[in-house]
Amino acid sequence: MINNAEQALKLHHARNQRWGFRWALWTAVLWGAWYIPGTALWFEAPYSTIDPFSQSIRLSATAVMTWIHAIAVFIFLLIWNASLGKLKEYGRTIIRFRKLSKWYALASLFGGPMAIFGSYMAMGFVGPVFAAVTSLFYPVIGVVIARLWYKEKISTQAALGMVIIIMGGIVIYGPGLLGEDLMGNHAWLGYLGGIMSAIGWGAEGAVASRAMDVSDPDVGIQCRFSFEVLFWGLFILPILAGFTDLPIKQLIIDTVTSFEAMKWMLLASICHAYCYTAFYKSFSLIGVGRGEAIGNLYGVFAVIFVAVFTLELPEWYFIIGLVLTMTGSFVMFREPADSVSELRAL
Amino acid sequence: MKLHHKGYVLVSLADIDNCWDDMLIQSALQEYDLSGRYWINHFSIILNELASAGLIIRDDYRFDEQSNRLSFNYSMSEFGRMRMRDTGLI
Fold first, then answer.
1. Which of A10, A99, A318, B63 sits CB 3.0–4.6 Å from B88 for a disulfide?
2. What gap in Å lies between CA B2 and CA A261, rounded to an integer?
3. CA angle, A276 as apex, A301 and B8 as ends, to 5°?
4. Gap from A8 CA to chain B (nearest CA, Å)
5. Which pLDDT tens digit goes with each residue over A137-157?
6. Distance (Å) from the C-alpha of residue A208 to the closest C-alpha of chain B?
7. Which pTM value belongs to this model?
8. From CA A229, how far away is CA B89, in angstroms rounded?
């Protein structure tokens, strides 16, 4: 017979598990929503005027866009942490660079320049569907790193759920690959970009989770974006502007002076800021593997948001993908809460 | 400058063998001059995250039926001490 204390303990574990999955689901919803303003931005000046075949200008535009986006995300996170009363905690955390916040700097390198740039390379040199499919594999990388680095437990049930969610994603996006030129000129750059994006996002989760062992997730995400702003603003963009003839300055000026571009930029940033906040919060409650796997449902939400805003129904095979991803999510959620209460096999 | 919150909780627990959460939380509230239910929950979540990640161990628990509150007795794990060394907390 279970006494009240045991019952309370079970409820405690179940509540934590529910909150972890809730945060991870919010990640997926906001990530999916991000695709609407994120894509719309490319249809506004100065980005709409760029020749689609001019890869170097497109990549420079991506770099500029990502930097301005990171600054806006940083501002939204500042508002978030101010409202939570955690600004002092942000200062106490970021200042300990050598022992602590360096991990957030590394996470920002993986998630920013490596993953986002890789994803755009995959889009540019093979196609957007290929980029979406390769990104779906990032939880596998996250789980492997977390497992090897700090022994994160991943049960058979969680692994099964993750595989079903990835299969669902492939069913949704896979048929679109038939319309893409997989063997075109410089396709190897696209494959390299696909690998970069999967490794980048997977590794970001594992590295950030390592930092969150001893720091607050809300503050951690702001540290991560602080470093991303610095990487682009102090290193990558000045190098591109100084050593190449790419129009970096002009792209920055044209972006911030365009009301339409900034409107989409701010909408994308607000989605991204709180998507990432939810993402990091889920890691400390259900682990990197489960958080990233549920985060992978962004593929489903992206299709739903596109359908809502364009009033065009998705292809029939979306239903099969949807059933698979929902099944995978339920398989993961049905895992006993006790097994999620201790995330490491120490 | 004061330690970040998780760092403070780890250092406090490392100084004693084990401790109930309400004592750790009270000590943290005093250290940062904070009060109220929000900050009590904040430090409870911190302890919960540290336990999930294996840095601290839940040695015991008790349920107070009057306040409907579940309390935990925590101690440091070897992994927690290792992380503290990695991050310059000890």
1. A99
2. 42
3. 150
4. 7
5. 899 999 999 999 988 888 899
6. 13
7. 0.92
8. 28
